[in-house]
Amino acid sequence: MPKETVRKYRCASCGRTFEYEGKPEKCPDCRCRILILLEGESIRQPSSGSGCASSG
């Protein structure tokens, strides 16, 4: 039986960050169902202006 991975989630309503094994149904605080998965590199925002196109 494969072990479930513990992942970090953030609630879109109250902003609470929590860890959950598997897939959560609701936020433990406000019971909101809109949860954002936070995983490793996906948390980082790309720096602005870092495109591949040259300007001239």
How many helices? 0
H-E order: EEE
Helix content: under 10%
Averaged pLDDT? 78
**Straight-line distance between termini:** 57 Å
Based on Cα principal axes, name the global outline: elongated
> Could you give the order of strands across the largest sheet?
2-1-3
Low-confidence stretches: 41-45
Q: Sheet bearing the most strands, described?
A: 3 strands, antiparallel
Strand content: 25-35%
What is the radius of gyration computed over CA atoms, rounded to a whole number of angstroms?
A: 16 Å
Structural class: mainly beta
Number of strands: 3
Written overview of the protein:
The protein is an all-beta fold. It has a domain at 6-40. It has no helices and three strands. Strand 1 and strand 2 form a beta hairpin.
